[in-house]
Amino acid sequence: MRLIDARRDQYRRLAKDQGYRARSAYKLLQLNSSYRILKKGSKVVDLGCAPGGWLQVATKEVGQAGKVVGIDLKPVEPVLGATVLEGSIEDPAMLEKIAGILDGGKADVVLSDLAPNVSGVWDVDHARQISLSTIALGFARQILRAGGSAVFKVFEGDMLNEFRAELKKSFGRVFLSKPSASRQESSELYIVCLDFKQ
Questions:
Q1: Domain containing 54 — which CATH number?
Q2: Mean per-residue pLDDT for 71-82?
Q3: Which domain holds residue 65?
């Protein structure tokens, strides 16, 4: 078995053993271990939350004093401690709904693991991914409190630097990271953004 396959199986096995819905839960756990994004009592919004692995991590990390809201276009099985909304982040009514769930307040953290349906045509997939992340950034700018944090999934490519430059307009610190739970052969990266400037 190749090392890549072994690592993939390792996280799939771990997820099954530890009750996470997806191996992607370990990506967020690793990012959080490095950057301390999720804290007790935090209000978190998870964009593109299906199948719910990130919601499971977030609810555990923020505890009962926190609030976690997930949004996805498709139905998601309920996650204990989280509110899941079905719909689009481009729907203006979604912001109002979330503000209501957060007691009219702002979020401390926005997580975006959004990904396009991959076509296999690299330039097209990269452009779609950056477009989704740009929409997620627009959403984050409206819902985050000053000093808040965000995580955006991106694909490597020639539009990435431009997107990072855009992020730096809104956040004091911007880091590019590849958790070990990500497939090493994939072009998937995460951008961790701290110190949101309203």
A1: 3.40.50.150
A2: 94
A3: 3-196
